[in-house]
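Thread: Modeling a multi-component assembly for a lab meeting

Hi all, long-time lurker, first post. My supervisor asked me to bring a structural picture of a complex we are working on to next week's group meeting, and I have zero experience with this. I have the sequence lines for every component (663 residues in total). Could someone generate the structure of the whole assembly? Inputs are pasted exactly as I received them:
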Amino acid sequence: MAYDKFNILKSAAVPLPLENVDTDQIIPARFLKATERIGFGDNLFRDWRYNSDDTLKEGFVLNNPIYKGKILIGGKNFGSGSSREHAAWAVYDYGFRCVVSSFFADIFKNNCLNIGVLPVQVSSAFSEQLFNAVYNDPETEIEIDLPTQTITILSTGAQEFFDIDAYKKENMLNGFDDIDYLQNIKSEIQEFAKGLPL
Amino acid sequence: MSKTLFDKVWDSHVVRKIPNGPDVFFIDRHLIHEVTSPVAFLGLKNRGLKVLYPERTFATADHNTPTINQHLPVTDPLSAKQLKALEDNSKEHGIRHWGLGHQNNGIVHVIGPENGITLPGSTIVCGDSHTSTHGAFGAIAFGIGTSEVEMVLSTQCIMQAKPKKMRINITGKLNKAVTPKDVALYIISQLSTSGATGYFVEYAGTIFENMSMEGRMTVCNLSIEMGARGGMIAPDEKTFEYVKGRTFAPKGTDWDKAMSYWKTLKTEDDAVFDKELTFDGSTIEPMITYGTNPGMGIGISQHIPKADKVQAGNATYEKSLKYMGYAEDDEMIGKKIDFVFVGSCTNGRIEDFRAFASIVKGKKKADDVTVWLVPGSHVVEDQIKEEGILDIITEAGFSLRQPGCSACLAMNDDKVPAGKYAVSTSNRNFEGRQGPGARTLLASPLVAAAAAITGVVTDPRTLMN
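Re: Modeling a multi-component assembly
Sure thing. I ran the full set together rather than chain by chain. Output:
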């Protein structure tokens, strides 16, 4: 399905500096049983957010009301493991529109791009600046500017350029998805298929 | 420029190159299961689209299915609903569906090769990261998200930037009790879980050439655990022998034609990789993991590394050991085990049960260990019976369950309770992977068998003649 357009996002951010956060943590397998894409945000980081009796785990950042916003800042190698797109759905459904990390796992990154969550990869040094800025002042605003491909910590003015391929950028800016594109070249695909050995 | 095996297969499947963007990449064969497909079918419905090539997609139920009493209705209503959705969607779109009880049913990455769906030089995707398994046949195979499942259903293509190329060479000879699983866990321990992110791997060297197809599947299966999109091994006589005669493999003159193409699927001598790594296979011992990702593995005789020796940040490492209830410098041998799981798309094939049986033969199951032996498919289940393995394991006090993904991801009732330790032949030791609070130690079927007999982490070499 086509998704929200992404242009410039200005928001406070939620810090999660752990490394190697895998998609089993983002959404545990037992919550993958839906046949529709609804309600996944409730189970985002389920086992880090809740005790086994469903009471809140106080130490976890999503349960700390001083941190909020549409940007999630994760540690290195964010989204590794299972290909479950449900992880990206949970991130989106919870209210995040952008995930920042110094390194993303491939499939999670693709899944985010396919549903309109912008993955922004920054240098380790900039990642550290982001965590520091948010810890110093949880209300500090981060600006993600997709047209100029820059991320800025508004309180300090620190800025970095981020990569995104031109095709995906155009999609994000316009809310298009790959199926729109592929549908338009269907006859070319069918012609191609005739020449395959298998 | 000289091409690698990966280049040859990739380049022959590019429908269109988008400047400054991904390739439109054609998929020969698509595998689907009940968990990651329902929303894709819903997407088709919402857009009013049809499946373009239903004969190129194959459906099996595996992720949330029970592994006992499969003849009875599935009791969990949500699982039952997903299974019904797969059946209904397959029927509506004319897709082959091998549901619970069907002779061809089993774990998606086990039944693909068994039925000749997996072929050299082909491109294969599935909404499951362990699709990399099929790379053992010289195919490009990788996991995709549900949006991409919808793309493949509706256009047989996805949009992918071509990954970089890495070759991993292993030289020398493997020691006693060192299995393909140990080789893979060793590589991941050297590269970390992100060491191959952005790459597609080719495994090369005599160790892989000498490996059985089952072993190659185990190695390629685990490629994703070092971050790689997939891994592949050049097809050879062993590959062709395995594929020949299987249901969906080419027959007659088509076979001859396919063979002449498949024989060209090799990396050329002067082809260049973006990264090349070489390891000495003779230094590998049976492996076991001690932490909460597959990169946290060590030789079974070693001690848990100290924090200053590992790559991940201290907070992450500390959290991991705390979750496991272990401490730096602990010895792994002798650690108490409560559960043993043999199965999954990583180690649920006949060779894995042969290996398990070779250790437990003539011995008895440890009293206080719960053991789940779950074949990857009905074909594997039948082989276990026909080869007399069932008799050996029954005699030793074990029983066999029915095929499915089972405790690998614990979507069904096969859950390890909170705080308990499981030696598992599966692929992930993430927090809660085998049940909320469960603690997983990844290892080979030999190490699993040794734990099942002794109730503690045991070096299998001490139990072998």
